[in-house]
């Protein structure tokens, strides 16, 4: 179930848009009540973005003024979310069109039962991640979707080539023998997917399982660019599309037909048409679909103009 509020046509916050990515696994007896509280709060303080509430906890990325973000964090802590993984960054423009609060069965959908609160892997701090990447006995696995990996990834990381996190258990079943007997280190955007993926590995008998605390975002925030082993930019699920070192806004744009992040070369390709197609999806859509996308883009341009 999704509840959302359109945003009033207000000016940007005087202190800029603060973007907050957060999650915490915590058992909730009445997630529907929390959803309504958050919907009411977000409407009052002018948040935008999406929060997901489920019996297992909360997850989401939102943006607002400094005061609005502080108000959300204070409310969540007051109702028991006192161990949130939370990361902040800035956006020059409003990164989301509206505010949504979704009630779901999982805060990140893996599709198989796991125990992230009691069986997740060992955390590795951002400052120690480079040493792990260099270790010969470690297999490093990127748990994100293929379009996210395309924007950037860690040097030497294994790409499962999945289109959704639901596909990860099947990938593990097919590649378990290749990982057997090795130390397995995993990473994702903000850390939440790794809470479940490492728990899944441990439930399948893997013992030495690790994951990057705070995910790629924490690494890009804390590790100096000159020491970084990250290549490219990090895909984020908001209007910025990607961020780089220091969590600065990246240079990618999103194809609004297929969702892939596009660099300058792809935007110069003959198959790229803003809002309509890109080299990744041009052959996958019909002429009728492209016509509909053009109409949509013209409506968007008219509103923006």
TrEMBL record:
Coiled coil: none annotated. It comes from Deinococcus aerophilus. This is tRNA uridine(34) hydroxylase. It is an enzyme of class 1 (oxidoreductase). PANTHER family: RHODANESE-LIKE DOMAIN-CONTAINING PROTEIN 7-RELATED, THIOSULFATE SULFURTRANSFERASE/RHODANESE-LIKE DOMAIN-CONTAINING PROTEIN 2. Keywords: Oxidoreductase, tRNA processing. NCBIfam families: PRK00142.1-4. Catalyzes oxygen-dependent 5-hydroxyuridine (ho5U) modification at position 34 in tRNAs. Residues 134-228 form the Rhodanese domain.
